[in-house]
């Protein structure tokens, strides 16, 4: 028996330790982390750690890192701290089994904001903009909000899905708690200021060399905040209307035999040439469970997304006045490769509460 965890389980990126490091470079964060952050996480989740420790005494845990705990892959101190706790633990950028053609990825590799890229001039690896955004907003937005908003507002705004509805979430909690500050404007101001930083500009120039100038338009001209609000709303409304699941799109590309997905494995690439065919693809990253049969030229393939342990906030109905509910999907997927065939069992438990 083997257990696969598809990343972001340790949530190092949004830990107190990383927050206290401030807006230092991504490389400095990597070098600075030690077992302190693992100790803190274990104290908050003792039961989970105890359960995993018991499992790892007799079976192997394969931990495929995500973008929120990528640090584990590159930091020897974090690896040592975890392997001291879990007897049989493998920490991997991805997992591939040549016999079963099973590929396990986190999935952030197909998310433009949360994947690594190469500097077009120097060839050096550029960290995801999503990492910098999370750390910037923790320091420049969260710390301001906590002075006049309930703790749950600070904790939960990052869990709103789709992200477009974060504006309605701020408006909703402003009414409930009678907050005398416009949280939407405060969030947008912090976000647009973030786009002026050298880190964000470098990322934009490198990933969007022909269109990065657009960001300057709504940051510096045409009303600044209002232009930013309109642009963000337009982009996310368009995505919502199209109902695009970009990971499903890439899953189909991988399963149908295209090799172009490998160019997005910057920061994770190791021996990718051995992956010639994928029959079963398992990913995470997005916060909802998915189970799809994908037809391909060489037969039927399977794509599974494990969802997330993290709760999400969703609007009830289409109007803001209906409020929000918190939903935690707890999926369980088992695969049995004995008897010359693959038997897959998938189940999901939903925990729902009104906010």
UniProtKB/TrEMBL annotation:
Native species: Thermotoga neapolitana (strain ATCC 49049 / DSM 4359 / NBRC 107923 / NS-E)
Signal peptide interval: none
Domain of life: Bacteria
The name this protein goes by in its record: Calcineurin-like phosphoesterase domain-containing protein
Gene3D superfamilies: 3.60.21.10
InterPro entries according to UniProt: LpxH-like, Metallo-depent_PP-like
GO (cellular component) term, any one: membrane
Molecular functions (GO terms): metal ion binding; UDP-2,3-diacylglucosamine hydrolase activity
Gene Ontology biological process terms, A to Z: lipid A biosynthetic process
């Amino acid at each position: 028996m083997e257990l696969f965890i598809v990343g972001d389980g340790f949530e190092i990126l949004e830990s107190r330790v990383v927050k206290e490091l401030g807006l230092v470079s991504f490389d400095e964060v990597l070098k600075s982390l030690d077992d302190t952050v693992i100790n803190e996480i274990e104290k908050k989740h003792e039961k989970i750690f105890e359960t995993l420790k018991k499992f790892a005494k007799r079976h192997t845990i394969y931990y495929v890192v995500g973008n929120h705990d990528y640090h584990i892959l590159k930091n020897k101190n974090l690896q040592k701290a975890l392997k001291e706790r879990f007897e049989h633990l493998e920490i991997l950028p991805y997992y591939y089994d040549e016999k079963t053609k099973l590929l396990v990825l986190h999935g952030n590799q197909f998310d433009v904001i949360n994947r690594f890229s190469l500097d077009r001039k120097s060839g050096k690896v550029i960290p995801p903009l999503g990492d910098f955004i999370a750390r910037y907003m923790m320091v420049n937005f969260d710390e301001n909000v906590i002075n006049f908003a309930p703790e749950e507002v600070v904790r939960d705004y990052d869990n709103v899905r789709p992200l477009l509805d974060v504006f309605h979430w701020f408006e909703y909690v402003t009414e409930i708690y009678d907050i005398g500050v416009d949280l939407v404007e405060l969030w947008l101001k912090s976000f647009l200021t973030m786009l002026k930083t050298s880190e964000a500009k470098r990322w934009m120039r490198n990933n969007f060399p022909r269109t990065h100038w657009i960001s300057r338009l709504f940051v510096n001209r045409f009303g600044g905040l209002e232009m930013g609000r309109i642009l963000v709303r337009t982009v996310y409304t368009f995505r919502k209307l199209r109902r695009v699941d970009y990971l499903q799109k890439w899953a189909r590309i991988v399963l149908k035999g295209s090799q172009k997905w490998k160019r997005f494995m910057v920061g994770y690439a190791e021996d990718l040439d051995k992956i010639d065919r994928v029959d079963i693809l398992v990913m995470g990253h997005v916060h909802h469970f998915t189970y799809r049969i994908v037809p391909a030229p060489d037969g039927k393939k399977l794509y599974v997304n494990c969802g997330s342990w993290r709760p999400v906030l969703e609007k009830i109905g289409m109007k803001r006045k209906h409020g929000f509910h918190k939903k935690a999907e707890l999926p369980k997927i088992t695969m049995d490769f004995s008897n010359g065939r693959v038997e897959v069992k998938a189940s999901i438990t939903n925990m729902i509460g009104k906010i």
